[in-house]
Amino acid sequence: MDRARTLAVVSAGQLGAGIAGMVVALRRVHPYDVFWMHGQPEAIARDTLFKGTALSAPVSTLVTQAALTAAMARHPTRRAAQGLRIVGLTMVAGYLGERLVRQRLRPAGWDALESPLIIAALGLSVGMVALGYLSPASGTNPKHPPVAGS
After folding, report:
1. How many CB atoms lie within 10 A of CB 132?
2. List of E strands, the chain
3. What is the average pLDDT across 48-65?
4. Model pTM greater than 0.85?
5. Distance (Å) of CA 65 to CA 55, 85, 86, 107
6. Beta carbons of 37 and 84 less than 8 angstroms apart
7. DSSP H or E run through 79
8. 10, 48, 103, 121 — which has fewest CB within 10 A?
9. SS3 (DSSP) at 146
């Protein structure tokens, strides 16, 4: 499997982990708590759309990721790879900035469902960053060349 297809597969896996994280956070009422921003339990459903949860990016980001992943799977370009790399980088920062994530990654805060989910989502996000550097020789489709300036 070439690097571009691998990026699409890793991103699809991360998207699945993000959706699972959203479901878990909604059911367990884990609003976002990232850096200086704090969500409220009573607003978690609304915040899920544009601010996310403690265990997932917002729906708006997940939709963007889904579109870029589909584009990368169909017609790999450096621009789509760059978009996925940026989404992955944003997610890495978001996960590491999230108070509940840091708590769940400590032995004292380990949760049998949330901790493995976080490890998978964070690891796949890192994979998106690492794989998102595509050069013309690393798997872009010659029938669909990268857009100029990408």
Report:
1. 25
2. 33-34, 37-38
3. 97
4. yes
5. 16, 10, 10, 31
6. no
7. helix 78-97
8. 103
9. coil
User: What distance lies between CA 118 and its chain's CA centroid?
Assistant: 11
- 106-146 confidence digits (pLDDT tens): 999 999 999 999 999 999 999 999 999 876 554 455 455 55
Residue 69 dihedral angles phi and psi, to the nearest 5°: -65, -45
- Which 3 state secondary structure label does DSSP give 96? helix
User: What are 56's two structure tokens?
Assistant: 């997932």
Beta carbons of 68 and 76 less than 8 angstroms apart: no
DSSP state of 136: G
Q: Cβ neighbours of residue 36 under 8 Å, at least 6 residues apart?
A: none
**DSSP 3-state assignment of 31?**
strand
Q: In angstroms, rounded to a whole number, what is the distance separating the alpha carbons of residues 1 and 132?
A: 15
Q: Which two tokens stand for residue 137?
A: 């020789």
Please name every residue paired with 38 in a beta bridge, in sequence order, or none if there are none: 33
SS3 of 38-59: ECCHHHHHHHHHHCCECCECCH
Tokens of 133: 């550097």
Local structure of residue 132 (DSSP, 8 states): T
